[in-house]
Amino acid sequence: MNFTPFIAFLILLEQCFHSSDRSSLTQKVILTPEELELFRNVKDTDIEEIYPLGSVILMVFTLAVAINWTVGRYWRHPYRRGMGWAHLISVMIFTALLYTRHTSMEFHKGNPEYEEIENDEDEENDENSLVYLFALLVLIFGLAIDWCFSNTTKKRISVSHSQTSHKRHLAERLLVGQGLLGEDELERHLPQKNLRIFIATWNMNGKKDLPERLDDFLFPSGGESAQDLYVIGVQEGCPYRQEWEYRLKLTLGDRYVLLHSAAHGVLYLSLFIRRDLAWFCSEVECSTVTTRFFPMIKTKGAVAASFTFFGTSFLFINAHFAAGDSKVKQRIQNYEKIIKNLQLPKNVPDTNPIYSDPDDATSRFDEVFWFGDFNFRLSKSRSEVDSILENLPENDMRSLLQYDQLSEEVTKGSIFKGFKEGEIHFRPTYRFNIGSDDYDTSKKQRTPSYTDRVMYKSRTFYNGTKKRTNIKDNK
Protein backbone atom coordinates (compact mmCIF):
# COMPACT_ATOMS: atom_id res chain seq x y z
CA MET A 1 0.00 0.00 0.00
CA ASN A 2 1.12 3.51 -0.80
CA PHE A 3 1.10 5.74 2.30
CA THR A 4 1.94 9.00 0.52
CA PRO A 5 -1.50 10.64 0.96
CA PHE A 6 -1.54 9.93 4.69
CA ILE A 7 1.40 12.28 5.25
CA ALA A 8 -0.65 15.27 4.17
CA PHE A 9 -3.71 14.05 6.09
CA LEU A 10 -1.76 13.73 9.32
CA ILE A 11 -0.61 17.34 8.97
CA LEU A 12 -4.14 18.55 8.32
CA LEU A 13 -5.60 16.53 11.19
CA GLU A 14 -3.01 17.97 13.53
CA GLN A 15 -4.12 21.46 12.55
CA CYS A 16 -7.77 20.48 12.84
CA PHE A 17 -7.54 19.27 16.43
CA HIS A 18 -4.97 21.81 17.59
CA SER A 19 -6.24 24.83 15.71
CA SER A 20 -6.12 27.01 18.84
CA ASP A 21 -2.33 27.17 18.46
CA ARG A 22 -1.65 28.41 14.96
CA SER A 23 1.44 30.52 15.50
CA SER A 24 3.62 28.38 13.26
CA LEU A 25 1.22 28.64 10.31
CA THR A 26 0.54 32.36 10.21
CA GLN A 27 2.13 35.58 9.14
CA LYS A 28 1.48 39.24 9.93
CA VAL A 29 0.12 41.60 7.29
CA ILE A 30 -1.03 45.25 7.23
CA LEU A 31 -4.79 45.60 7.05
CA THR A 32 -6.42 48.12 4.70
CA PRO A 33 -8.79 50.80 6.11
CA GLU A 34 -11.77 48.82 4.80
CA GLU A 35 -10.61 45.75 6.69
CA LEU A 36 -10.08 47.79 9.86
CA GLU A 37 -13.76 48.70 9.88
CA LEU A 38 -14.54 45.08 10.63
CA PHE A 39 -12.69 45.33 13.93
CA ARG A 40 -14.18 48.05 16.13
CA ASN A 41 -11.90 47.45 19.11
CA VAL A 42 -8.65 47.69 17.17
CA LYS A 43 -6.54 50.71 18.05
CA ASP A 44 -5.12 52.97 15.36
CA THR A 45 -1.57 52.09 16.31
CA ASP A 46 -2.28 48.40 16.37
CA ILE A 47 -2.98 47.61 12.75
CA GLU A 48 -1.45 44.13 12.55
CA GLU A 49 -3.64 41.07 12.38
CA ILE A 50 -3.07 37.40 11.90
CA TYR A 51 -3.91 35.96 8.48
CA PRO A 52 -4.00 32.16 7.89
CA LEU A 53 -1.52 31.85 5.04
CA GLY A 54 -0.38 28.49 6.36
CA SER A 55 -3.78 26.98 5.72
CA VAL A 56 -3.61 27.93 2.07
CA ILE A 57 -0.16 26.36 1.75
CA LEU A 58 -1.35 23.18 3.44
CA MET A 59 -4.41 22.98 1.21
CA VAL A 60 -2.37 23.38 -1.98
CA PHE A 61 0.20 20.86 -0.76
CA THR A 62 -2.49 18.33 0.13
CA LEU A 63 -4.22 18.64 -3.22
CA ALA A 64 -0.89 18.34 -5.06
CA VAL A 65 0.00 15.15 -3.19
CA ALA A 66 -3.50 13.75 -3.71
CA ILE A 67 -3.51 14.44 -7.46
CA ASN A 68 0.01 13.07 -7.89
CA TRP A 69 -0.81 9.89 -5.97
CA THR A 70 -4.15 9.38 -7.73
CA VAL A 71 -2.68 9.79 -11.21
CA GLY A 72 0.27 7.52 -10.46
CA ARG A 73 -1.83 4.78 -8.86
CA TYR A 74 -5.08 4.73 -10.82
CA TRP A 75 -4.79 6.39 -14.22
CA ARG A 76 -2.62 3.59 -15.58
CA HIS A 77 -5.53 1.20 -14.94
CA PRO A 78 -8.74 2.47 -16.63
CA TYR A 79 -10.97 0.08 -14.69
CA ARG A 80 -9.81 1.67 -11.43
CA ARG A 81 -10.26 5.32 -12.36
CA GLY A 82 -13.63 5.43 -10.59
CA MET A 83 -11.91 4.61 -7.31
CA GLY A 84 -9.30 7.25 -8.09
CA TRP A 85 -11.96 9.92 -8.61
CA ALA A 86 -13.65 8.92 -5.34
CA HIS A 87 -10.39 9.28 -3.41
CA LEU A 88 -9.56 12.60 -5.03
CA ILE A 89 -13.01 14.09 -4.39
CA SER A 90 -13.00 12.97 -0.75
CA VAL A 91 -9.59 14.60 -0.29
CA MET A 92 -10.84 17.85 -1.86
CA ILE A 93 -13.99 17.91 0.31
CA PHE A 94 -12.08 17.16 3.49
CA THR A 95 -9.46 19.81 2.69
CA ALA A 96 -12.07 22.44 1.80
CA LEU A 97 -14.04 21.84 5.03
CA LEU A 98 -10.93 22.01 7.15
CA TYR A 99 -9.67 25.15 5.41
CA THR A 100 -13.08 26.85 5.84
CA ARG A 101 -13.13 26.14 9.56
CA HIS A 102 -9.51 27.15 10.02
CA THR A 103 -9.92 30.41 8.11
CA SER A 104 -13.15 31.29 9.89
CA MET A 105 -11.56 30.93 13.32
CA GLU A 106 -8.56 33.01 12.29
CA PHE A 107 -10.59 35.77 10.66
CA HIS A 108 -12.95 36.23 13.60
CA LYS A 109 -10.35 35.86 16.32
CA GLY A 110 -10.54 38.91 18.58
CA ASN A 111 -13.95 40.05 17.30
CA PRO A 112 -16.18 40.73 20.40
CA GLU A 113 -19.37 39.94 18.53
CA TYR A 114 -17.98 36.61 17.39
CA GLU A 115 -16.77 35.71 20.88
CA GLU A 116 -20.25 36.35 22.34
CA ILE A 117 -21.88 33.77 20.10
CA GLU A 118 -18.97 31.36 20.05
CA ASN A 119 -20.30 29.36 22.97
CA ASP A 120 -23.69 29.03 21.26
CA GLU A 121 -22.07 27.33 18.28
CA ASP A 122 -20.57 24.37 20.12
CA GLU A 123 -23.22 22.08 18.68
CA GLU A 124 -22.52 23.36 15.18
CA ASN A 125 -18.80 22.77 15.66
CA ASP A 126 -19.56 19.24 16.81
CA GLU A 127 -21.54 18.73 13.62
CA ASN A 128 -18.60 20.06 11.59
CA SER A 129 -16.29 17.65 13.37
CA LEU A 130 -18.61 14.82 12.42
CA VAL A 131 -18.45 15.96 8.79
CA TYR A 132 -14.63 15.94 8.91
CA LEU A 133 -14.65 12.51 10.50
CA PHE A 134 -17.13 11.21 7.93
CA ALA A 135 -15.01 12.47 5.01
CA LEU A 136 -11.91 10.87 6.52
CA LEU A 137 -13.73 7.58 7.08
CA VAL A 138 -14.90 7.61 3.45
CA LEU A 139 -11.30 7.94 2.29
CA ILE A 140 -10.02 5.21 4.63
CA PHE A 141 -12.89 2.93 3.63
CA GLY A 142 -12.10 3.48 -0.05
CA LEU A 143 -8.42 2.74 0.52
CA ALA A 144 -9.30 -0.43 2.40
CA ILE A 145 -11.58 -1.63 -0.42
CA ASP A 146 -8.92 -0.84 -3.00
CA TRP A 147 -6.25 -2.65 -0.99
CA CYS A 148 -8.43 -5.76 -0.65
CA PHE A 149 -9.34 -5.59 -4.35
CA SER A 150 -5.69 -5.24 -5.38
CA ASN A 151 -4.57 -8.21 -3.29
CA THR A 152 -7.44 -10.37 -4.53
CA THR A 153 -6.67 -9.44 -8.13
CA LYS A 154 -2.97 -10.22 -7.66
CA LYS A 155 -3.81 -13.65 -6.27
CA ARG A 156 -6.15 -14.38 -9.18
CA ILE A 157 -3.60 -13.15 -11.69
CA SER A 158 -0.89 -15.20 -10.00
CA VAL A 159 -2.98 -18.39 -10.23
CA SER A 160 -3.99 -17.63 -13.80
CA HIS A 161 -0.44 -16.76 -14.77
CA SER A 162 0.87 -19.97 -13.21
CA GLN A 163 -1.63 -22.04 -15.17
CA THR A 164 -0.93 -20.14 -18.40
CA SER A 165 2.83 -20.49 -17.91
CA HIS A 166 2.48 -24.24 -17.46
CA LYS A 167 0.39 -24.53 -20.64
CA ARG A 168 2.82 -22.39 -22.62
CA HIS A 169 5.75 -24.43 -21.34
CA LEU A 170 4.08 -27.62 -22.58
CA ALA A 171 3.27 -25.93 -25.90
CA GLU A 172 6.87 -24.82 -26.33
CA ARG A 173 8.08 -28.35 -25.64
CA LEU A 174 5.71 -29.65 -28.30
CA LEU A 175 6.94 -27.02 -30.78
CA VAL A 176 10.54 -27.91 -30.12
CA GLY A 177 9.75 -31.59 -30.56
CA GLN A 178 8.13 -30.88 -33.93
CA GLY A 179 11.19 -28.98 -35.11
CA LEU A 180 9.70 -25.45 -35.38
CA LEU A 181 12.02 -24.16 -32.64
CA GLY A 182 14.42 -27.05 -32.69
CA GLU A 183 18.06 -27.47 -33.60
CA ASP A 184 17.31 -27.69 -37.32
CA GLU A 185 15.80 -24.20 -37.43
CA LEU A 186 18.57 -22.82 -35.25
CA GLU A 187 21.24 -24.30 -37.53
CA ARG A 188 19.56 -22.93 -40.63
CA HIS A 189 19.13 -19.33 -39.41
CA LEU A 190 22.09 -19.06 -37.03
CA PRO A 191 24.79 -21.47 -38.25
CA GLN A 192 27.33 -20.14 -35.75
CA LYS A 193 24.73 -20.34 -32.96
CA ASN A 194 25.63 -16.79 -31.98
CA LEU A 195 23.06 -13.99 -31.76
CA ARG A 196 25.04 -10.86 -32.59
CA ILE A 197 23.61 -7.87 -30.73
CA PHE A 198 24.42 -4.21 -31.26
CA ILE A 199 23.67 -1.96 -28.25
CA ALA A 200 23.71 1.83 -28.67
CA THR A 201 22.86 4.60 -26.24
CA TRP A 202 22.61 8.31 -27.04
CA ASN A 203 21.64 11.31 -24.94
CA MET A 204 20.30 13.54 -27.72
CA ASN A 205 19.78 16.59 -25.49
CA GLY A 206 16.50 17.23 -27.31
CA LYS A 207 18.26 17.39 -30.69
CA LYS A 208 15.83 18.38 -33.46
CA ASP A 209 18.03 18.24 -36.57
CA LEU A 210 18.46 14.55 -37.35
CA PRO A 211 20.86 13.36 -40.04
CA GLU A 212 19.27 11.74 -43.08
CA ARG A 213 21.13 8.50 -42.48
CA LEU A 214 22.83 7.03 -39.43
CA ASP A 215 25.44 4.75 -41.00
CA ASP A 216 28.30 5.98 -38.77
CA PHE A 217 26.10 5.36 -35.74
CA LEU A 218 24.79 1.88 -36.64
CA PHE A 219 27.72 0.58 -38.70
CA PRO A 220 30.85 1.97 -37.00
CA SER A 221 33.03 -0.66 -38.71
CA GLY A 222 31.34 -0.51 -42.09
CA GLY A 223 28.37 -2.27 -43.66
CA GLU A 224 29.99 -5.70 -43.34
CA SER A 225 29.67 -5.38 -39.53
CA ALA A 226 25.87 -5.71 -39.61
CA GLN A 227 24.46 -7.53 -36.58
CA ASP A 228 21.40 -9.73 -36.00
CA LEU A 229 19.66 -7.53 -33.44
CA TYR A 230 19.92 -3.76 -33.00
CA VAL A 231 18.83 -2.21 -29.70
CA ILE A 232 18.94 1.59 -29.56
CA GLY A 233 18.25 3.57 -26.40
CA VAL A 234 17.81 7.34 -26.36
CA GLN A 235 17.65 9.78 -23.46
CA GLU A 236 16.30 13.33 -23.78
CA GLY A 237 15.08 12.25 -27.19
CA CYS A 238 14.14 14.46 -30.11
CA PRO A 239 10.52 15.68 -30.31
CA TYR A 240 9.87 13.55 -33.39
CA ARG A 241 10.10 9.97 -32.21
CA GLN A 242 8.47 8.46 -35.31
CA GLU A 243 10.87 10.36 -37.54
CA TRP A 244 13.79 9.06 -35.46
CA GLU A 245 12.64 5.46 -35.87
CA TYR A 246 12.09 6.03 -39.59
CA ARG A 247 15.72 7.18 -39.95
CA LEU A 248 16.90 4.08 -38.10
CA LYS A 249 14.84 1.81 -40.35
CA LEU A 250 16.02 3.65 -43.47
CA THR A 251 19.64 3.14 -42.49
CA LEU A 252 19.25 -0.54 -41.57
CA GLY A 253 17.37 -1.37 -44.75
CA ASP A 254 14.68 -3.88 -45.65
CA ARG A 255 16.60 -6.76 -44.16
CA TYR A 256 15.47 -5.61 -40.70
CA VAL A 257 12.07 -5.09 -39.15
CA LEU A 258 11.05 -3.07 -36.10
CA LEU A 259 10.50 -5.75 -33.48
CA HIS A 260 9.31 -3.35 -30.80
CA SER A 261 9.29 0.33 -29.90
CA ALA A 262 8.57 1.87 -26.50
CA ALA A 263 8.89 5.25 -24.79
CA HIS A 264 8.79 6.72 -21.32
CA GLY A 265 8.56 10.47 -21.72
CA VAL A 266 11.79 11.42 -23.52
CA LEU A 267 13.31 7.95 -23.05
CA TYR A 268 13.05 5.90 -26.27
CA LEU A 269 13.79 2.23 -26.86
CA SER A 270 13.82 0.65 -30.35
CA LEU A 271 14.52 -2.98 -31.27
CA PHE A 272 15.28 -4.00 -34.87
CA ILE A 273 15.87 -7.63 -35.79
CA ARG A 274 16.69 -9.52 -38.94
CA ARG A 275 13.49 -10.19 -40.82
CA ASP A 276 14.03 -13.96 -40.96
CA LEU A 277 14.60 -14.15 -37.19
CA ALA A 278 11.51 -12.20 -36.12
CA TRP A 279 9.35 -15.34 -36.38
CA PHE A 280 11.25 -17.01 -33.57
CA CYS A 281 10.75 -14.24 -30.99
CA SER A 282 8.01 -14.44 -28.40
CA GLU A 283 5.66 -11.58 -27.64
CA VAL A 284 7.69 -8.50 -26.68
CA GLU A 285 6.67 -7.09 -23.30
CA CYS A 286 7.42 -3.60 -22.01
CA SER A 287 7.56 -1.84 -18.65
CA THR A 288 8.53 1.63 -17.44
CA VAL A 289 9.67 3.13 -14.14
CA THR A 290 9.95 6.81 -13.25
CA THR A 291 12.45 7.92 -10.63
CA ARG A 292 11.02 11.42 -10.29
CA PHE A 293 8.97 12.39 -7.21
CA PHE A 294 6.00 13.22 -9.44
CA PRO A 295 5.26 10.30 -11.81
CA MET A 296 3.93 12.69 -14.47
CA ILE A 297 7.49 14.00 -15.01
CA LYS A 298 9.17 11.39 -17.19
CA THR A 299 12.65 12.73 -17.80
CA LYS A 300 14.43 10.29 -15.49
CA GLY A 301 13.78 6.60 -15.04
CA ALA A 302 13.79 3.55 -17.29
CA VAL A 303 11.99 1.89 -20.18
CA ALA A 304 12.53 -1.84 -20.69
CA ALA A 305 11.56 -4.56 -23.15
CA SER A 306 11.82 -8.34 -22.87
CA PHE A 307 11.20 -11.43 -25.01
CA THR A 308 12.40 -14.98 -25.52
CA PHE A 309 14.34 -16.20 -28.56
CA PHE A 310 14.86 -19.94 -29.19
CA GLY A 311 14.22 -20.61 -25.49
CA THR A 312 16.55 -17.88 -24.17
CA SER A 313 15.03 -14.86 -22.42
CA PHE A 314 16.35 -11.34 -23.01
CA LEU A 315 15.87 -8.09 -21.10
CA PHE A 316 16.92 -4.68 -22.41
CA ILE A 317 16.80 -1.63 -20.11
CA ASN A 318 17.35 1.95 -21.23
CA ALA A 319 17.82 4.22 -18.20
CA HIS A 320 18.59 7.81 -17.28
CA PHE A 321 19.81 8.36 -13.70
CA ALA A 322 19.99 11.52 -11.57
CA ALA A 323 22.45 14.17 -12.75
CA GLY A 324 25.07 15.99 -10.68
CA ASP A 325 28.70 15.33 -9.79
CA SER A 326 27.98 14.51 -6.15
CA LYS A 327 24.64 12.65 -6.50
CA VAL A 328 26.09 9.15 -6.37
CA LYS A 329 23.66 8.05 -3.67
CA GLN A 330 20.65 9.24 -5.68
CA ARG A 331 21.86 7.31 -8.72
CA ILE A 332 22.17 4.14 -6.66
CA GLN A 333 18.64 4.73 -5.39
CA ASN A 334 17.44 5.11 -9.00
CA TYR A 335 19.01 1.74 -9.82
CA GLU A 336 17.39 0.03 -6.83
CA LYS A 337 13.97 1.46 -7.62
CA ILE A 338 14.16 0.29 -11.22
CA ILE A 339 15.14 -3.32 -10.52
CA LYS A 340 12.40 -3.53 -7.90
CA ASN A 341 9.56 -1.90 -9.86
CA LEU A 342 10.10 -3.23 -13.39
CA GLN A 343 7.06 -5.43 -13.98
CA LEU A 344 8.65 -8.01 -16.27
CA PRO A 345 8.03 -10.65 -17.43
CA LYS A 346 4.24 -10.34 -17.59
CA ASN A 347 2.71 -13.13 -19.68
CA VAL A 348 5.79 -14.75 -21.17
CA PRO A 349 6.94 -17.30 -18.56
CA ASP A 350 10.29 -17.11 -16.83
CA THR A 351 12.52 -19.73 -18.42
CA ASN A 352 14.10 -20.62 -15.05
CA PRO A 353 12.01 -19.26 -12.14
CA ILE A 354 14.12 -21.09 -9.58
CA TYR A 355 16.86 -18.48 -10.07
CA SER A 356 14.51 -15.49 -9.91
CA ASP A 357 14.38 -12.86 -7.18
CA PRO A 358 10.99 -11.11 -6.68
CA ASP A 359 12.80 -7.87 -5.81
CA ASP A 360 15.15 -7.91 -8.80
CA ALA A 361 13.70 -7.91 -12.31
CA THR A 362 17.10 -8.58 -13.86
CA SER A 363 17.29 -11.97 -12.12
CA ARG A 364 14.32 -13.27 -14.14
CA PHE A 365 16.10 -13.33 -17.51
CA ASP A 366 18.94 -15.30 -19.08
CA GLU A 367 20.55 -12.32 -20.81
CA VAL A 368 20.28 -8.74 -19.48
CA PHE A 369 21.58 -5.57 -21.11
CA TRP A 370 21.34 -2.33 -19.15
CA PHE A 371 22.47 0.83 -20.90
CA GLY A 372 21.86 4.58 -20.95
CA ASP A 373 22.99 7.81 -19.39
CA PHE A 374 23.92 6.72 -15.87
CA ASN A 375 25.43 10.14 -15.12
CA PHE A 376 28.33 8.76 -13.06
CA ARG A 377 31.27 11.17 -13.23
CA LEU A 378 35.03 11.24 -12.80
CA SER A 379 35.96 12.27 -9.26
CA LYS A 380 38.45 14.88 -10.41
CA SER A 381 38.31 18.58 -11.24
CA ARG A 382 38.04 19.81 -14.80
CA SER A 383 41.63 21.00 -14.90
CA GLU A 384 42.94 17.68 -13.58
CA VAL A 385 40.95 15.67 -16.13
CA ASP A 386 42.09 17.96 -18.95
CA SER A 387 45.68 17.42 -17.90
CA ILE A 388 45.22 13.62 -17.95
CA LEU A 389 43.54 13.78 -21.37
CA GLU A 390 46.46 15.73 -22.84
CA ASN A 391 48.93 13.03 -21.83
CA LEU A 392 46.64 10.04 -22.38
CA PRO A 393 48.16 7.09 -24.30
CA GLU A 394 46.12 5.98 -27.30
CA ASN A 395 43.34 3.51 -26.39
CA ASP A 396 44.56 3.29 -22.78
CA MET A 397 41.99 4.90 -20.48
CA ARG A 398 43.08 3.34 -17.19
CA SER A 399 44.52 6.59 -15.87
CA LEU A 400 41.02 8.12 -16.23
CA LEU A 401 38.91 5.13 -15.23
CA GLN A 402 40.61 4.85 -11.85
CA TYR A 403 38.57 7.92 -10.87
CA ASP A 404 35.29 6.64 -12.36
CA GLN A 405 32.43 6.72 -9.84
CA LEU A 406 30.55 3.84 -11.44
CA SER A 407 33.55 1.50 -11.44
CA GLU A 408 34.13 2.30 -7.80
CA GLU A 409 30.52 1.55 -6.82
CA VAL A 410 30.44 -1.67 -8.84
CA THR A 411 33.59 -2.80 -7.03
CA LYS A 412 31.89 -2.05 -3.69
CA GLY A 413 28.87 -4.11 -4.76
CA SER A 414 26.42 -1.26 -4.24
CA ILE A 415 25.15 -1.22 -7.84
CA PHE A 416 24.94 -3.51 -10.91
CA LYS A 417 25.58 -6.66 -8.93
CA GLY A 418 26.64 -9.45 -11.25
CA PHE A 419 26.97 -7.14 -14.26
CA LYS A 420 30.01 -6.75 -16.47
CA GLU A 421 31.18 -4.07 -18.85
CA GLY A 422 33.22 -4.28 -22.03
CA GLU A 423 36.64 -2.69 -22.02
CA ILE A 424 36.57 1.05 -22.62
CA HIS A 425 39.00 2.23 -25.27
CA PHE A 426 37.44 5.58 -26.05
CA ARG A 427 37.55 9.03 -24.47
CA PRO A 428 34.81 10.35 -22.17
CA THR A 429 31.45 10.78 -23.89
CA TYR A 430 30.35 13.71 -21.67
CA ARG A 431 30.08 16.60 -22.23
CA PHE A 432 30.74 18.15 -25.64
CA ASN A 433 29.75 21.50 -27.04
CA ILE A 434 26.77 20.97 -29.32
CA GLY A 435 27.92 20.11 -32.84
CA SER A 436 31.63 19.85 -32.01
CA ASP A 437 34.27 17.51 -30.58
CA ASP A 438 35.32 20.02 -27.92
CA TYR A 439 34.45 19.39 -24.28
CA ASP A 440 32.19 21.86 -22.48
CA THR A 441 33.49 25.43 -22.68
CA SER A 442 30.45 27.07 -21.07
CA LYS A 443 30.53 28.79 -17.69
CA LYS A 444 29.78 25.47 -15.95
CA GLN A 445 32.97 23.87 -17.35
CA ARG A 446 31.59 20.37 -16.78
CA THR A 447 34.19 17.70 -16.14
CA PRO A 448 34.51 15.14 -18.99
CA SER A 449 33.13 11.81 -17.78
CA TYR A 450 31.95 8.38 -18.85
CA THR A 451 28.25 8.95 -18.26
CA ASP A 452 27.01 6.75 -21.15
CA ARG A 453 27.50 3.06 -20.39
CA VAL A 454 26.51 -0.44 -21.45
CA MET A 455 26.31 -3.16 -18.77
CA TYR A 456 25.39 -6.81 -19.25
CA LYS A 457 25.05 -10.07 -17.36
CA SER A 458 24.09 -13.71 -18.01
CA ARG A 459 22.69 -16.42 -15.81
CA THR A 460 25.37 -18.84 -14.66
CA PHE A 461 23.84 -21.96 -16.18
CA TYR A 462 23.40 -23.50 -19.59
CA ASN A 463 19.85 -23.17 -20.89
CA GLY A 464 19.14 -25.31 -23.97
CA THR A 465 19.94 -23.13 -26.97
CA LYS A 466 21.58 -20.39 -24.93
CA LYS A 467 24.89 -19.42 -26.49
CA ARG A 468 27.57 -16.79 -26.13
CA THR A 469 26.41 -13.25 -26.95
CA ASN A 470 28.75 -10.73 -28.51
CA ILE A 471 28.80 -7.28 -26.92
CA LYS A 472 29.26 -4.02 -28.79
CA ASP A 473 30.55 -1.12 -26.74
CA ASN A 474 28.82 2.23 -26.89
CA LYS A 475 30.87 5.04 -28.39
TrEMBL record:
Highest rank taxon of the organism: Eukaryota
Q: Does the keyword Transmembrane helix apply?
A: yes
Inositol polyphosphate-related phosphatase domain sequence ranges: 193-475
Q: Which GO terms describe its biological process?
A: phosphatidylinositol dephosphorylation
SUPFAM superfamilies reported for this sequence: DNase I-like
| Membrane-spanning intervals of the chain | 50-71, 83-100, 130-149, 256-273, 302-323
Q: Which UniProt keywords apply?
A: Membrane, Transmembrane, Transmembrane helix
One Pfam family of this chain: Exo_endo_phos2
Q: Which InterPro entries match?
A: Endo/exonu/phosph_ase_sf, INPP5E, IPPc
Q: Which Gene3D superfamilies match?
A: Endonuclease/exonuclease/phosphatase
Q: Give GO MF terms, alphabetically.
A: inositol-polyphosphate 5-phosphatase activity
Give the PANTHER family listed for this entry. 72 KDA INOSITOL POLYPHOSPHATE 5-PHOSPHATASE, PHOSPHATIDYLINOSITOL POLYPHOSPHATE 5-PHOSPHATASE TYPE IV-LIKE
Q: What is this protein called?
A: Inositol polyphosphate-related phosphatase domain-containing protein
